[in-house]
Specification:
The chain is an alpha/beta fold and about 270 residues long. The protein has 2 domains: about 180 residues, Rossmann fold (3-Layer(aba) Sandwich); about 70 residues, Helicase, Ruva Protein, domain 3. Strands 4-3-2-5-6-9-7 form a 7-stranded mixed sheet. It is elongated, with a radius of gyration of 21 Å.
Length: about 270
């Protein structure tokens, strides 16, 4: 592929370590008929390895300057369907009408990782699994458990939808140009049936946001606009706990408790 100068505004750090690429492909373990979508193929480091293994590969790339080289790559190696689009605005559900059918992979730009993950979770019903290169610190936040320092809003929201697992770390020297942070490969497996169901998802999202916006405050104070101390006690939730002590199921319990209280107020 022709020489391309990485663009800072796109957060471009191109993977160039062949051993890491091999390990990522092995972790994905693509089968011939899999419906794989790659976000940000860039210079094609993963694309060139994936394409010969599949009947077809779809990619979503924002940088117009990379489209022509990617087309040439497709002509040489297999059927490559290119979507020139911003992944943050791209509707992944348009790619399939089958539930749990998309396998999404990518070296995600670190500057848009969190909003992109939330965007993908909105279409989790059509996604089989996700395998991403992320900033290591973000990956650790995603998999963190209650009580751990890294546990926060991102942990709760991703774990509501997915099982999460960090597979391995990747050093800065594996990229061109090297980022100033360590990276990690993470696997996200959307639940086919949610273990804990929020009856009003937007309310659940708001409760989690409120709790972690003031994470040094106790729930009694951070959630006082939504639920009072006695109502928390009625749900078997200690109002003196702080946000990082609660599990996903606890947050769902609080949100559903508020939901039923609102129904009671309405009636």
């Amino acid at each position: 592929m022709q020489k391309h100068i990485p663009r800072k505004r796109f957060g471009q750090h191109f993977l160039c370590d062949t051993n890491v690429i091999r390990d990522i492909i092995a972790a994905l373990n693509p089968q011939r008929g899999d419906h794989v979508v790659e976000i940000g193929p860039g210079l094609g480091a993963l694309t060139t390895q994936l394409l010969p293994l599949l009947e077809q590969l779809e990619v979503v790339e924002l940088d117009r300057d990379l489209i022509s080289p990617l087309k040439i790559l497709g002509e040489k190696l297999g059927k490559l369907i290119i979507h020139q689009a911003d992944a943050l605005r791209f509707d992944f559900s348009q790619l399939t009408d089958k539930p749990a059918s998309l396998r999404v992979i990518g070296n995600l730009p670190y500057n848009i990782t969190t909003p992109l993950l939330f965007h993908l979770l909105a279409t989790a019903a059509v996604i089989q699994d996700m395998l991403f290169m992320l900033q290591k610190e973000v990956a650790e936040r995603i998999v963190a458990q209650p009580g751990e320092e890294a546990y926060g809003r991102l942990s709760v929201m991703v774990q509501y939808f997915c099982q999460t697992e960090i597979l391995f770390a990747v050093g800065p020297e594996c990229f061109m140009p090297p980022p100033k942070v360590d990276s990690a490969i993470i696997r996200l497996l959307p639940y086919r049936e949610l273990p804990f169901v929020a009856q009003d998802y937007l309310l659940f999202e708001d409760v989690v946001r409120l709790a972690f916006n003031q994470r040094r405050k106790t729930l009694r104070n951070s959630l006082h606009t939504r639920i009072n101390q006695q109502q928390l006690l009625n749900l078997n939730i200690d109002p003196e706990l702080r946000a990082e002590r609660l599990s996903v199921s606890d947050y769902v319990k609080i949100a559903n408790g508020i939901y039923h209280l609102q129904l009671g107020d309405t009636n």
